[in-house]
Specification:
heterodimer, A: mainly alpha, two-stranded antiparallel sheet, 4 helices, 2 strands, B: Sodium/glucose cotransporter, globular
Chain lengths: 122, 537
């Protein structure tokens, strides 16, 4: 998805047949690679967050258990939410740089060199 | 004067506070003037020429997001109601994963200036744009109210202005300053104010955090013990002090959690920031920066909140002018005397100013770009007219914010912001998600989801205990009571309702949206082809 260096366009974008791009196996692969990461990971993160919220409202005794000193499980779990948020962020960035960006760039190059030029538009 | 009775914690030197704040205004004004010299086109005015780096934009997002609610509201909530206040911090932070994973890059790739650009991309332009602009304006208005309410409380504490008229004058001054920043600086000026403010806020909170910990021998557990001793209530360490009272408050807590985690990715002023960077990759980087800065800041709030409980004490905070919102400034006073109080208060003022400026430019851009240029002028405004309309809108919104701020004076700001999150998550998020990820989504589905989410959220707020029925409600009396909805946050009803409406209406709708537009949107959103480029001067 990165598009840092827009190369010189040889095809004007109005002529691109986006339907053909969308149907191409390269694009389907990009779409799959993107969705198969973001949906399950986000789902897991939200489930983990709501588990925490539910514990905080319905499991007071458990959450109030002291872990060390006066620090209780509620505080440890709260900080764990912060840690998982940081970890997932770095994981996604790594994944996007390694897996998504090269695919997106490949498709962009193909479009810009006119592989998907619209026949009717000419 | 009202504040004299809290003399032991009284607000240091008003003139020192004013001088520090004045210095901040002077420095930022110079920067805004310098930054604004290149404001020529709409892309300059709304999107700062798309010329910021990921790091700069990430700091600006943190500056935009860490509002007075985060600083004053959360620290106050933790000091008063203990652990339950910390839930705000966690919700506000985890919410960024929704923005990072689902929205930021795809939105940068498909839109131009506003949220409506993306939502109306493959649906019918006029009705969807009008709906998206409406929800943008309403969410910005709620958020503005929260910030201005914070300004009022802060003023009463800092400048020793206890009476309503004096506070109103200061809110007017803050509003006028904000109008000036946005008029002159546009998005570029606003962004620089936000960056400066983010740095000051995080450094300021960091210094106070280390200071509080140092006073307790860097033993967090000892700090908690002290907070318990001063508050005379061991329950402040456990969840449930505020939201565990009854079954209704427990559901309210869930509702709040839902609104917080789903609201961020639907806040128009946050979304608009993604257009100020040159590429989707920079948009990604900016979210990563923002998550780190925001996450670190929220960890500070935990220490500061319990620090305020231990060093100032809930009883003193509750009695101080400004109530819970004054916990952070009072903590600063007890740590570093009048000078630190002055610095921290100037930072809090800067926070309000920067967030209000961000909201104002978003609302003005939405009105000028979506309503005026795209709907009234059918996409062909005269050259320069759009920015002119945006500038006029800035003045009108500024005046509305001043009046609303005077009215909302005294409410807990974290709580008011949570309402803005609930409205954003209900009115905007379903349509954003569906139009990016679901092929069969239709115009009708979008309209039902947006208006349904918006109206249900607002109606439920109006008939909630927030507005009527108690001394602490907005109407401030028990005599008027039309609160038939038991929860104070509508999210748990209005968010699922908006998702459901969008889905059912689209499924039942027989019209088929232009498949070519859907292909184009999907290809563009994922590959970044044809995305708006940076403006080069």
């Amino acid at each position: 998805m990165g598009n840092d260096a827009p190369s010189a366009t040889s095809t004007t974008l109005a002529e691109v047949d986006y339907g053909a791009v969308q149907a191409s196996p390269e694009f389907q692969r990009l779409r799959r690679t993107h969705r198969s990461f973001v949906f399950p990971v986000l789902g897991a993160c939200l489930a983990w967050y709501f588990a925490y919220v539910l514990l905080a409202s319905y499991a007071h005794d458990f959450m109030s258990t002291r872990v060390f000193g006066s620090v209780n499980i509620a505080m440890v779990l709260g900080l764990a939410q912060v840690v998982t948020t940081f970890a997932v962020t770095m994981w996604y960035v790594h994944y996007a740089n390694k897996r998504l960006d090269p695919l997106a760039e490949e498709i962009r190059d193909e479009i810009e060199t006119g592989v998907f030029e619209n026949e009717e538009a000419r | 004067m009202l504040h004299l009775e809290a003399a032991s914690t009284s607000p240091g030197e008003p003139w020192l506070n004013i001088a520090i704040f004045g210095a901040f205004v002077a420095v930022t004004m110079v920067i805004v003037f310098r930054a604004s010299r290149n404001n020529k086109t709409a892309a300059d005015y709304y999107a700062a020429g798309r010329s910021f780096t990921g790091g700069q934009n990430g700091s600006a997002i943190a500056g935009d997001y860490l509002s007075a609610a985060s600083f004053l509201g959360i620290v106050g909530a933790i000091a008063m109601t203990g652990y339950d206040g910390f839930l705000y911090s966690i919700g506000f932070l985890v919410a960024w994963l929704v923005a990072l994973l689902l929205v930021a890059e795809l939105l940068r790739n498909t839109g131009k200036f506003t949220m409506a650009d993306v939502l109306s991309f493959r649906l019918k332009q006029r009705p969807v744009r009008i709906a998206a602009a409406t929800t943008t304006l309403v969410v910005c208005f709620f958020y503005l109210l929260a910030q201005m309410a914070g300004a009022g409380g802060l003023v009463s504490l800092l400048l020793g202005i206890g009476d309503q008229v004096g506070q109103a004058v200061v809110i007017t001054v803050v509003g006028a300053l904000m109008i000036l920043y946005v008029l002159i600086g546009g998005m570029k000026g606003t962004t620089w104010v936000q960056i400066i403010k983010a740095v000051l806020l995080i450094v300021g909170a960091g210094v106070m955090t280390v200071w509080v910990l140092a006073l307790n021998g860097f033993d967090f557990s000892a700090l908690l013990d002290k907070a318990v001793a001063v508050a005379e209530n061991p329950a402040i360490l456990d969840p449930g002090l505020k939201y565990g009272v009854s079954d209704v408050t427990k559901v309210d807590f869930l509702s709040l959690g839902l609104a917080l985690v789903l609201g961020t990715a639907a806040l128009p002023h946050v979304l608009m920031r993604f257009y100020t960077v040159p590429t989707a990759k920079e948009a990604r980087k900016s979210v990563v920066w923002a998550i780190w800065l925001i996450g670190i800041f929220y960890v500070f709030t935990l220490v500061l909140g319990y620090g305020a409980a231990a060093l100032v004490g809930p009883a003193v905070i509750a009695a101080a002018p400004g109530g819970p919102n004054s916990a952070a400034p009072l903590l600063a006073f007890s740590l570093g005397g009048p000078l630190l109080l002055g610095l921290i208060s100037a930072i809090a003022f800067a926070t309000i100013l920067a967030v209000v400026a961000g909201l104002t430019i978003t609302a003005a851009a939405s009105f000028a770009h979506d309503i005026y240029a795209s709907v009234v002028k059918k996409g062909k405004p005269e050259p320069g007219a759009e920015v002119k309309v945006a500038r006029r809108t800035v003045v009108i919104i500024g005046i509305v914010a001043i009046i609303g701020g005077i009215g909302a004076n005294g409410q807990n700001v974290a709580f008011l912001v949570a309402l803005a999150f609930a409205v954003a998550a209900s009115a905007n998020l379903p349509t954003i998600v569906y139009s990016l990820f679901w092929k069969r989504f239709t115009t009708k589905g979008a309209l039902w989801s947006m208006y349904g989410g918006l109206i249900s959220a607002i109606v439920l707020i109006v008939f909630s205990p927030v507005v009527s029925g108690s001394e602490t409600s907005m109407l401030k009396t028990e005599a008027i009571d039309f609160a038939w909805f038991p929860l104070s946050n509508p999210g748990i009803v209005s968010i699922p309702l908006a998702f459901l409406l969008g889905w059912i209406v689209s499924v039942l709708d027989k019209t088929v949206e232009d498949p070519k537009k859907q292909s184009e949107m999907e290809v563009r959103s994922l590959t970044g082809i044809g995305a708006e480029k940076a403006v080069s001067h």
